[in-house]
Structures are given as structure tokens and as C-alpha cells.
Fold:
Amino acid sequence: MRFEIMRLDDVDGTPVDTTVVDAASVNQIVQQAAAIGQRLWIRPAGTAAS
Structure:
């Protein structure tokens, strides 16, 4: 399964960066974001994800 991870702007919460990753990579990305206080939005990547 693949997931779309959007990094969110600290001020208004708008997506600033989008990455599609496999399930095995999600935990590492979440840990890195938590270490620096970064906000993420994670959802399953469908056929419309780019």
C-alpha cells in the first residue's frame, strides 16, 4: 500500500510539499517530522495522487 504525505505550513496548515511513499516508509517520516515539530497529513494514495 502507498500513502500520500503532505507537509503542512506551520502558520495556516496549507500543504507545502507532497510525497507518495510505501507503507514501510511512513513510520520513519512521521518520526522525523515529530522530532522537529512538523505537521503532516497522511492518507492512502489513490489513483489520483501525483
